[in-house]
Amino acid sequence: MTFDEHLDTDQIYFNHQHLPTGKSARISQFLDLIRQRSGQTNYATVKTENHVPTSAGLASSASGFAALAGAASRAAGLQLDAADLSRLARRGSGSATRSIFGGFVEWHAGHDDQSSYAEVLQDPVDWDIQMIAVVLKATKKPISSTDGMARVVATSPYYPAWITTAETDLKRMRQAIADRDLTTVGQIAETNAMRMHALNLSAEPAFNYFTADTLTAIQAVNDLRSHGINCYYTLDAGPNVKNHLCGSRYRHHYDRVTTTF
Fold it and tell me: The Mvd1 C-terminal domain covers which part of the protein (predicted)?
């Protein structure tokens, strides 16, 4: 991306397609933050590509805004350390605060802009854990992550309980990662994800990201586990399933997934 004194508006190209102003407003608003911080006054040309389906529950916004935070801040002359870059990326997409880093990362919720950022728990990841992303539906989901969570917060009677259990899950997850304990990591991720999706059903009006294929993929993981393969599933706000497993059992898992789908 570049800032250009000859432009009279931001020019955003997404997967080689020029975005009209209405669809690029979120990106321009993020660039405004950088212009304010850096003193940059010019509009920008941004060319970005996603290598995963967009708005399908595969963290496309997180990766995209993390990349934009890095590229745009540097183009504007800002020299941000990792923590400040994490804070900046969060302003585009909450999960982007984690995507600045590799490995296992924790997002500190904080209470203001300064205290809400991410840091690495473990990188490199030097133990036998891998992930398979099963893309079941690549089209845009019917309700965005932001809108869905806002509805849950406003209407679900179970949201306060989920906050409490999520805090407990986080403490346990830190220890499981430190112990390199795939079983506990997988169990926590699986249970936490299902509780989050249960919240969606308790919202008013209720909504659901699952498809029939989502349930089939979940059952495939359960079946593999019942046959002694140590694997677990998790889902973000979308229908696509991510599976955690030992690298040594990758082929068994891959063969089952490709046979099923």
Answer: 132-241
Q: 77-132, pLDDT tens digit by residue?
A: 999 999 999 999 999 999 999 999 999 999 999 999 999 999 999 999 999 999 99
Q: Which of 122, 139, 163 is the last residue of a domain?
A: 122
Q: How would you label 224-238 residue by residue, b for 16+ Cβ within 10 Å and e otherwise?
A: bbeeeeebbbbbbbb
Which residues span the domain enclosing 117? 2-122
- How far is Cα 21 from Cα 11, in angstroms, rounded to an integer? 8
Q: In this structure, how many other beta carbons lie within 10 angstroms of the beta carbon of residue 139?
A: 10
3-state secondary structure of 248: helix
* Model confidence pTM above 0.70: yes
Token digits of residue 98 = 């984690």
Based on the domain organization, do 61 and 137 belong to the same domain? no
Closest to 204 in 3D by CA, of 158, 258, 259 = 158
- Of 122, 151, 176, the position where a domain reaches its end is 122
Q: Are residues 225 and 186 in the same domain?
A: yes
Domain count, the chain: 2
Phi, psi (5° rounding) for residue 203?
-75, 170
